[in-house]
Request: fold
Amino acid sequence: QVQLVESGGGSVQAGGSLRISCAASGRIFTMGWDRQVPGKQRELVATITAYGGTSYEDSVKGRFTISRDNSKNTIALQMNSLKPEDTAVYYCTAEDFTRENNYLGQGTQVTVSS
Reply:
């Protein structure tokens, strides 16, 4: 059973930056971040594979950067030029090498004020 432990997040004014991180307890193929606003569906924000391949949701391209340290089984999401619409609970996600098991962190709140 893989466990995901998130850290970071918090509150910032629009235009500011935040960094959130996630550590996984096991071997993971793809890690990433989803976010969810109350009353709305969870949406994918960014992913990164064990080989470094990345993908981003259109609204965060050019502002967010996902990175990974395979030696430590950790990922980070650097969020720049934050907007109020980025306010959400951000969840760390992971998929193992079997591609059959998916995991979700406990979530960390990111709040951007205008």
